[in-house]
Amino acid sequence: MILFAALALAGAAAFLLGIGGPQSLRAWQAYLVNYVFWTGLSFGAVLFAAVLNMTDARWGRSLKRLAEGLGAFLPASFLLFWVLYFGREEIFPWIREPSTERSGWLSVGFLFARNGAGLLLLTLLSMTLISNSVKADRQFINRPPGTSDPAGGKPWKAQRVLSPIIGILYAFILSLLAFDLIMSLDPHWYSTLFGAYYFMSSFFAGLAALVFVSHLLRRACGLQEYIHPHHLHDLGKLLFAFCLFTGYLFYVQFLVIWYGNLPEETKYIILRVRFTPWEPLGWTVLGMIFILPFLVLLNRKWKMNPAVMIPVSLVVLVGMWLERFILVAPSLWKEKSLPLGFMEVLITAGFFGIVALSLAIFLQRAPLLPVSDPFFREAMQPHEEKERP
Amino acid sequence: MTFQDVNREILRTLSPPTRSYYLIVGLLLLGILGGACVWGYQIAVGLGVTGLKHPTMWILYLVNFVFWVGIAHSGTLISAILYLFRAKWRTPIARSAEAMTVFAVMIAGFFVFIHLGRVWILYWIIPYPNQRTLWPDFQSPLVFDFLAVSTYLTVSVLFWYTGLVPDLAAVRDRSQGIRRKIYGFFALGWTGTDRQWHHYGTAYLLLAGLATPLVVSVHSVVSWDFALAVIPGYHSTIFAPYFVAGAIHSGLAMVLTLLIPLRRIFHFEKIITARHLESVAKTTILTGLIVGYSYLVEYFMAWYSGNIFERQTFLFRAFGHHWFMFWLMVFCNAVVPLLFFFKKIRTSFFWLFLIAVLINIGMWSERFVIIIGSMSQDFLPHNWGFYTPRWVELSITVASFCLFLFLFLLFAKFLPSISIAEIKEDLTPLIRGKGKRDHHGA
Amino acid sequence: MVPDPALLGIFPYLDDLLDALRKAKKEGFKILTVFSPIHFSEIQEILGHKPSTVRYLCLAGGILGGTSLVGLAVYAHLSFKLITSGKPVLPWIPFVIVFFEGTVLLAVIFAVAAWILKGRLPRVHLHAAYDPRFSEDRFGILLGYQGEEQEAVRRLLMEAGAEEIRDVAG
Fold first, then answer.
1. Yes or no, beta carbons of B237 and A194 under 8 Å apart
2. How many CB atoms lie within 10 A of CB B72?
3. What is the pLDDT of residues B67-113, one digit of tens each?
4. Please, is B20 exposed, middle or buried when counting C-beta atoms within 10 Å of its C-beta (0-12, 13-18, 19+)?
5. Considering the domain boundaries, does residue C114 fall inside one?
6. Does A389 reside within a domain?
7. Domain range spanning residue A195?
8. What are the chain A neighbours of C40 within 8 Å (beta carbons)?
9. How many Å apart are CA B239 and CA B223, to the nearest integer?
10. Which residues of C fall within a CB distance of 8 Å from B198?
11. Identity of the residue in B138, B191, B203 whose CB atom sits nearest the CB atom of C114
């Protein structure tokens, strides 16, 4: 934990030094990339828990608390959002050169108000979901001996009601975030799919983080009896499915823009796949988030093997970070050199430190498994019936 | 229910048809023949007999094409995608849904022929070496369409047939004479040996795994017929997932529309329960929300773009010539399915059926609004022109519904409409029991 | 046609069948066929079947289909070298779709052909030992024996809970 706190502090220091120095744009850029990456990932993980609640799925129950743990970053993320206000002149080109057609929408006050409100709402709902989940477990653990299982009490019902609301708001608020914080960096460019692309690929990133955490903590925390190999197999299959889906969404956007060949749309893509310094990065990202996971996750045994899944999930996470980078940076950074260096690494480490710290603190306070979840208890019963492969 | 009960209940429907069955089938056949005659008339005289005129060069036929391909998709969703998710509620409805897919894709294919002026040279799109020295342009979305829809037809038929083989064996074993020979032929001599099941099980899983991305790709390809053009209202990156979600939305509604009467008429109440239909209804909430999200994003982006053509297109959709279809679409697709949030409504067969019909009307309207609306008023006002459907295309549309119902009724009468083997697999715990009991069975 | 003389045991209960299978495997009797109305993976596990090769045939079909359809597209485009809409003569981006459709088409066709042919289907005459109840609610094991073993096999089936034991002549 100390390590995480140290990383967080190092990141903060690097950031503060950066914005004071000559290349303040780089610092702000890195901050923004990290903000959208980690926030999306965190909300994505909470969505996983919400989807489990909505679908009565049994297979993933033992992973529910870990997913909620990844959402523990959200309050911190909300605070970190407001720091962007101080960098607004550097980040948002439409402040210096207002875009007349959309000046009503792209104005500082309105943007921060609507995003702040949306983030507040979604963060509060997510926190309520998580706290209800933990409260249900505490009630279950602390119930007086002799009382029956309080399956389906108020906290459980609260989770059932909150989950669909979170699901719906996730789509809208993360789309808003994508439109305002990423798409508006190039104010004359637009794509209807952009919001959906952001929130679906954030879910993918959240899944990758869950894979990473599950495989890591399974050994470390002695959860082998509760997280069975076939749960990990299913999680691997889900990761594979969303790898395909993210690749599909990327392709769909790319194809329509390429085919129409309208200059106001294509300039965004051409910048990222044809020009220096972004070209090699663009294709690297594609390889990391699509090609490599696709090939690796085809194999059945590998999906259950931590020695394979931990590196693969790391590759996906780094790839997704770079993907956010390549969405944000080319709109802001106009020079020929690639702005990826020590400063970015430190700031990223800082954010990672905060996320990991939140996860660690949460898992220390809350039971590692959702013991009061009725589907979890059902899933832990020994099966008579064989499941399909 | 014992395994014997399963066989009996499901195979009961294969008994000789009643008089009302013949009557309905006869009426549908009349509708189909009427439509065929009208089509013949259109081929003979030309597409001018329809309402087709510049600039709306794609008329109701394309609307129907997209509609029927969309209907086909939820069959594969239920059959293949839910199989991969191991969702138990899929079992009693999968076979009928698969049949619905096959018939819907066939009808969609028909509309490709029907919308052509020179139907007799349709084969020009098939890419084979020919002495016309013609090759289709593999870059064109219309060629993608041809490849995707024909692949989808092939795959759905094969997937449906694969699922049917063990059930056809069950029918064969309970038939005599010519019936036994016919069902036996199609059952390929299936005897349920370990070797057969072994390869069959693997193949079924592979088919489900392959059909899933195929479904997504097919309706994406259909959406690209529009999105790859540069007309405002067509050229939008969200089209592919938006159309796929819309397709599943309309398909699920069609599943409800077909199965609610089916279960009544065939007395399948114990097998297709309210719970199964409720799960279908809940899924329509999801797809309805995705469609609603897409409407909102498209509207927002039309404004955000600042492009006057985009802005005008979306204004015209809501307040222009086809305003009624637009509001019908929004109401039926995005608003009405939200009623399924209420348990009372999604467990009432009346409401399930009514809302399902409304969703289908809404989805048809959506295709109309998108396809016809954008073409009517594009860039130059001088180029604008409005389309009114005439009796030719309207009667062919009605005939297509007749054909769909006709094929489905044939399916329901001559083939087991619920997958016998899969229902039994869900009932396995019942026949596990230890042996040292009396052998008179459960 | 069944090569050796064999005994067919018909079981109403799945657990009895699995019991009999395990015992037969242990005693080393020749398990010719197991009949079942449903797919039950434990049967395959006890019999020790290796994972089905249908998946490799399917993969082969997929690769073949994708590459050949793209090959056709490439050939067609190179035949005329036309530039349409300012796109290159060989545009890889749309060819992704062509590749995908070809892959799925042939993968599915190969998979279906594979399961049919590998199941030794289609066949005109049903298996000699087949009982129509196998498509309803009965399971069956066909055990081959050599002369003396008949009694042992018969006893094994009886003890496991066979409802009926039938001689299937070789």
1. yes
2. 32
3. 999 999 888 888 899 998 888 889 999 999 999 999 999 999 999 99
4. exposed
5. yes
6. no
7. 2-96+103-144+151-377
8. 386
9. 6
10. 44, 49, 52
11. B203
